[in-house]
Amino acid sequence: MSAKTTTPTVTPWANKSEFFELKNWFFPGLSDPEAATASKQRAIARTKAYMIRGNVPHAVECTGMLVSAQIEDTPSANAISTRLAMSTAVIRFVNGMIDPHQNGSYVIPMQVIAREIGLPVFLVDLRHTCTHETLPSLRELRAGVDEAVTWLHTNYWSVRGAEANESATPAANSDEIKEIFRQWRRLYRDNRDLKALKDLSNPGSKPEMRFAFLAKQIVLYYSSDPATLFATMVHQKVMHTKNQINKALLLPMLKSLPSELLSDLFLYMFDEAERVDKHQTLSEELSLNANPVAEWLEVFVEQDMLSNGQKTMLTCSRSLGRTALNLLDIYLMHKNDPKIERIRQTMRDVVLSGEARLETAIETQDMVRLANEYKQRVMKENRKRTGGDFVSLGAEEVENDQQGPFKRVRVK
């Protein structure tokens, strides 16, 4: 039996990133009217270029015509020209949505088909008026154009965007994610004064608008496939190159991303750094620079990029690995946090007690219990040997101890 073959779909855009870019230009969601208009004009120009290539979906073409009519509707514009442009856009939109469903031997009323596909009947009536009667008023046409644009956004752009996300494979996503960061690298190279954007929905200059679009693309991939996004950033020479972190290049972009994305990325990098540490020879030198991923963790803490730092540190403190121990030290260098200080000391006591190896995951309450048992045992041994004198920890180390960077101590 022959294998089933599929016919590839020819589209004017080279990849899904271009489709999402066009969608975001048509529907920028910007509070600044001038910036929103500039974004829509770019979308119209791009649509015209796609029409030269051919195979442009009717919904995309109609979106361009309808949005163009909205932009041309200004106080200084000629009223008749505006009404003609809006009427033409409405007629082509309704005809393009209805005609593909006229497949039978008999003509089906437009209103019937409109109800079947969820198209407002008001737009069918408006199309009839524009075609066979006098031109409707500007008020009616504006309402019709706005309704048509809203319908296209809901029933075409949003649906196609969801399908593109669902059908995307991790390999394709990975290539597209890397392309986003390559575009950011070129943008930053030409505009090194770009700072982090606090509000992606309200960029100012053209470079900032491009900056905001790239950041939104990253957020889009985070919403659809965070595992692939993080794996690409950490393992495919995005966050670092030749064991050197791309700090200056990526900080403006990272600081513009949502806090929940940064927290999840931080925890992903923490797990990766812990995994690397388990395969490295543990030394007495506790340095986060053992690998670039661990170095990025230090940057996140130093730059105060975690919206809920204590909660994140508590999550990391469940591990007794070298990265967790050092990470809490760095956090305490920048934050006065008694709770984390107690947990950090407890972790050290547990390691000193020999109750747990450095790579073992352990709950915080178990740490406290083990640390208390360790301290009670030390005090009891001290009373036996010294008659009640306080024990000095760290005065003498056991030779050839293999418990990791924190060597055991012998009670004097």
Strand fraction: under 5%
Number of strands: 2
Low-pLDDT sequence parts = 1-7, 166-172, 281-290, 388-412
Strand numbers in spatial order across the main sheet: 1-2
Note the run of SSEs as H and E: HHHHHHHHHHEEHHHHHHH
Summarize the structure.
The chain is mainly alpha-helical. The protein has 17 helices and two strands.
Account of the 3D structure:
By secondary structure, the chain is mainly α. 65% of the residues lie in helices and 1% in strands. The protein has 17 helices and 2 strands. The chain has helices at 16-26, 33-53, 58-72, 79-98, 110-117, 121-132, 138-167, 170-190, 206-224, 226-235, 247-255, 259-278, 292-302, 309-316, 322-334, 338-353, 364-386; strands at residues 240-241, 244-245. It has a two-stranded antiparallel ribbon with strand order 1-2. The radius of gyration is 31 Å and the shape is elongated.
Throw out a few tags for this protein:
412 residues, mainly alpha, two-stranded antiparallel ribbon, 17 helices, 2 strands, elongated, disordered N terminus, endonuclease activity, YALI0D18700p, Las1
